[in-house]
Design goal:
Elements lengths: L7 H7 L12 E7 L5 E7 L2 E6 L7 E8 L4 E2 L8 E4 L18 E4 L4 E2 L5 E3 L6 E2 L2 E7 L15 E8 L2 E2 H6 L4 H5 L4 E9 L7 E6 L2 E7 L7 H9 L9 E3 L14 E6 L3 E9 L3
Parallel strand pairs: 6-17, 8-14, 9-19
Antiparallel strand pairs: 1-2, 1-5, 1-14, 2-3, 3-4, 6-7, 10-13, 11-12, 11-17, 12-14, 15-16, 15-18, 18-19
């Protein structure tokens, strides 16, 4: 039997569903396949998942159903209608503030999104496939022409992401669709974290266990509020939409069998294995 927490709707109107997650004011959301095969959203408290009745964006009720984290298969924590991304947004990755104030944005496809533990497929004709560690913004409510001052009100939280990029295609094609948005080129997860300082989180990538990138999001050229506000001037953002915020430092090629980990402070480790496509 399911029960509704009476204060949940009020909290959702102001800050989203809230269950203590081991840190005061911090909430972690997951999307998972339960042992019986049904897919649900939940709130993660330490290693216990409290199942939600419905999705994250429609004032879901908290049910009595709980699972240990080891009992479920974590999925990509959200299914977006749109996936937007920032071009160079760290000075260490060749970025600089645009003199006109225009942000360097591009699109990925929803079909590029996969979850923790899923394979990144290296296409049979790929020659220079790179990882890119990124913090990813998850939109919590419809955002259209929002101000920088109000922009954070429209953010549900953040997750870790890997903006997988085929550098040859990225440089040679008319647009970055194939090089940035092919299937499996957008791993995200393992959780969505709300209630932390998004503009000061440690971001790390490890390739086969060795650190390759390490920088704080405080070095973003354009911060979370600026990004959300700017994109909402041109594109209506819907609940569940994703924005990849850019990658720091330098990256290198991945081959079949490589394990790539993206760690974001307060979010956890997103781990994926590269699988070589054979045709």
């Amino acid at each position: 039997m399911k029960r509704t927490v009476t204060f949940l709707a009020l909290l959702w109107l102001t800050q989203g569903p809230a269950i203590a997650s081991g840190q005061e004011g911090v909430t972690r959301y997951v999307r998972y396949e339960a042992p019986d095969g049904h897919v649900a959203y939940g709130v993660l408290e330490d290693r216990t998942i409290h199942e939600l009745d419905g999705n994250l964006f429609d004032m879901p009720a908290v049910t009595e159903q709980t699972y240990d984290l080891s009992e479920v298969h974590l999925l990509a924590p959200v299914k977006p209608s749109k996936v937007l991304a920032m071009g160079p947004n760290y000075a260490s990755h060749g970025g600089e503030a645009a003199p006109t104030g225009d942000l360097p944005i591009f699109l990925k496809l929803p079909t590029s999104i996969v979850g923790p533990g899923d394979d990144i497929v290296r296409p049979h004709d790929a020659e220079n496939l790179h990882y890119e560690a990124e913090m990813v913004i998850v939109i919590g409510q419809r955002a259209e022409n929002v101000s920088t001052e109000d922009a954070l009100d429209y953010v549900l939280g953040v997750t870790a992401g890997n903006d997988v990029s085929e550098r040859g295609w990225q440089g040679g094609d008319l647009q970055w669709v194939r090089g940035k948005a092919s299937d499996t080129f957008g791993p995200i997860g393992p959780v969505i974290t709300r209630g932390v300082d998004y503009d000061d989180l440690l971001l790390i990538s490890r390739l086969n266990g060795e650190v390759r990138q390490e920088e704080r999001t405080s070095y973003l050229i354009f911060g979370v509020a600026e990004i959300v506000s700017y994109m909402s001037q041109y594109i209506t953002l819907e609940p569940g939409d994703l924005i990849f915020t850019g990658t720091p430092g330098s990256t290198e090629a991945m081959v079949g069998g490589d394990v790539i980990e993206i760690e974001l402070e307060h979010v956890g480790v997103l781990r994926n294995t590269v699988r070589q496509e054979v045709r």
